[in-house]
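User: Quick sanity check before I run a bigger batch. Here is a single chain. Can you write out its predicted 3D structure?
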Amino acid sequence: MSEDPEVYLPTEDPRYCTTCGARVAKLATSCLMCNASFVEEGAEGEEGLPDWARGLVVVLLGVAILAGGGFGLYTLMNSAPGPSDGTLMPTWTP
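Assistant: Done. Predicted structure follows.
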């Protein structure tokens, strides 16, 4: 006959909600029974740039895009026309 499959039991103690006492998953961020949050308020990962620096980056990017577009439009409008091939436009003759 076949052998029973091996079952591995967890070595860690189960995690319980501190508010209602219900058992919760290891990586849970809130309790499903009482909706208590397990995430600490100040426990965010990396903070990144402050708000004023993000605003400055957005403004500088906008200015750079507008300057590039203006320069492209300026060079397009002020470019010398190419050499003509010497053909004249047809005219109406009576």
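Residues 16 and 23 are 4 Å apart (CA to CA).

User: Great, the batch can go ahead then.
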